Amino acid sequence: MKKNVAIILGSGGHTTQMLRLVSKLGDKYNYSYIIADSDTTSKKHIKIKGKVYRVYDTRLKTDKNLIKVVLKFIPSTIGALKILSKIKPDFIIGCGPGMNLHVLWLAKYFFGAKLIFFESWVRVHNKSFTGKLIYHFSDLFMVQWKSLLKQYPKAKFVGRLG
Asked: Tens of pLDDT along 13-22?
């Protein structure tokens, strides 16, 4: 029986990286894709089919008010719990934006999914905000540049997704 793999598509380059990973893994898994409701382009780039779910985006670039952003976590978390209960992921894989944080955490601690995180390929020397937080509770943390192994000693270097 195929394992259920949830892939978080974070728009732009983050989506490109995740979809390159999916193409390398091939069709040996049941994929589900989680996309922010504000993302209008990621879905059309999916080549290996899977169910697509939309989660409420907690961090729109126009939001400057921290209280508004924090309050958005309530409906986003409820939506993510509903999505994850349908997917029942064995693994959840993310790369990049802050939209990942609560979805990855919920999948790991509420649904027992193995959490795999890729630090974005644009991170050559510095940690991302998301990477700093997820590193401590990920089951597998991967970097695409050897220079980041100094900052993430438990990470695995995998080279560029591409």
From this structure: 678 888 998 9
